[in-house]
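During the reporting period the student researcher (J.K.) took over the structure-prediction task from the postdoctoral fellow and processed the backlog of single-chain submissions. One of the processed entries is reproduced below for the supervisory committee.
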Amino acid sequence: MARRASSPVSKAVASAQAVDRGPVSVNAQVYEALKAQILSGQLRPGVKLIHQELAERLSVSRTPVRESLERLYQEGFVTRIARRGFFVAEIDEDEARELYELREALELFALERAIARGLSVADLRRLDGLNTRYRQLLRDDRTRERMVVDRDWHLSLAAAANNRVLMRMLEAVFERLILKIRVDGYRTVRGQEALNEHLAMTQALREENWTSARKLLRAHIRGARRRLIGHLSELAD
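J.K. obtained the following structure tokens:
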């Protein structure tokens, strides 16, 4: 793979080497670089991670790459298959169900806390803005970015609960869902359905129809789970 010395990742690693912070610092830089590429979709789910190619891309030796991949494996960002090597982690149906069960519990609790505290005009404006952004990405068929905006909508609603521990847990759930989904064939019609549900939930919140908001959020999350599991079944076929 061709070396891309001008990339921000390469510059960051090169800078760490230049100031002679030692191998631990370089390892940390490589780890953060690889993790960032996984989270951004530059290294997509299912892609094989070849030590030499990654080392050349990041302008480092193979040692920090090997140690970073081991750390990412321990954290669940990559998988390791005997005699085949490392791959960017993909989600399976069991993990999808478990993550969505946790997501539902966290989001419904956050909604109750947000209702108790009261949603502000600014809270609703943020949700409206994200709905507008989602609609634009839907027209442009930008699936990965659309998934990030979908996450941001839910995190913005949960933020109204003003519970930092809850937010960290929910962010971790979304991180694992987004980074491990192969978006190949994730049809636009599913995105339109999700947008319609976001709009309905936003309207219920604006009208302070809390019963409807609860029902819509629960149904929305369960519908998203069904769509993802259906998508995983299609990929398997």
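The committee noted the following: The longest strand covers residues 78-81.
J.K. will present the remaining backlog at the next meeting.
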